[in-house]
Amino acid sequence: MSLLIAPLALGAGVAWLEARHRLRPASPLWLMARDWKVSSSADVLRVAGVLEISNPHPRMEVFVPELRVEPTLLGRADLSSLTVTTRIQADHPDEEPRADGYWAAYIVKGLKTTRARVTIEIRGGAALELVDTLWVDVQWMNYGPFGRLSRRQGVPVAVRGPRPLRADQAQWQSGDGCTVLPVKTHLLGPLDDPIEVLRRYAAPLLQPGDVLTIGETPLAVIQGRYQHPSEVEPGMLARLACRVFHPTSSLATACGMQTLIDVVGPTRVIAAWIGGLLMKLVSIPGGFYRLAGDQARLIDDITGTTPPYDQTIVLGPERSASFCAEASEALGVDVAIVDVNDLGRVKVLASSSGCDEPLLQRALKPNPAGNANQRTPLVLVRSGRG
């Protein structure tokens, strides 16, 4: 009888842990930025777009009592002389908009959607030319059966971007039996289509046999796979498990670890932690990351990527293999998603069929894209020395 008690107790504990994790308070609402456009005149830069709030739950009704936007300007120099004004107008399907712009508390019913129209005007004369990105920080409240939850989501709007390179302007770098070309883009985000980004900035440079790579983090932010740490509520497991990781690891903070738990579940994290410890005892390093899954290695905690995403936690991309196949078909060259760092580590997360991955290992080992704020998420690799 005693032999049955331990497995039953373990099973009950695992079931309780998973149930507690899955039934924790959460709002079903989703916020998406859509149809953002930039226009300019001699002394005014105008950015306008829509924030769409959807409720996929069939029955739950959720209040949105507060919604505000805090814009942040990013650019190449001091922007303090510029003035910014923001206006939010509710665009509910069943209410007339208020002329004064006040956001009145609104109920988003099950399977319904509402919208907010945002207009941001930037004034300041010649200094407007220094602005390249507007970071739209949306702070909104969800109120319902789950309690009162603060939500926060940032969206970058590209104001200006680099002109796509022409083939005669490209400055290729020599590598090990290959040449590489880091390709600049604007600051990427959820308003972008990833294949259109590749087409816009790289298509004029492509030749048959080339391999076009995109970093895993830039693709992830295009897919919207990032969140502000204020949206993460670390539990006891996250606070305990994070303490055993090296301080430079993205899992060494409670929010970073909780992000992984939210993706793979607490049971897998506990199993990976125990399994990783046992593997370490027999001199097998990296056991936790192998057992916890790819996202354990791909999560970037704050400071882990380029501003303004340095204030967010970024997951790894999803649907990587299908993206590479679609992009390769659209562009006519091989495409790969890569994770590269300054230590010479190159990981090919996914690639199109027939891609020369040993070539990528040689070409990307020096990390030609850089790990700072170069904004070169694309690297074009060409076999031979050009």
UniProtKB/TrEMBL annotation:
Highest rank taxon of the organism: Bacteria
Protein name: F420-0:Gamma-glutamyl ligase
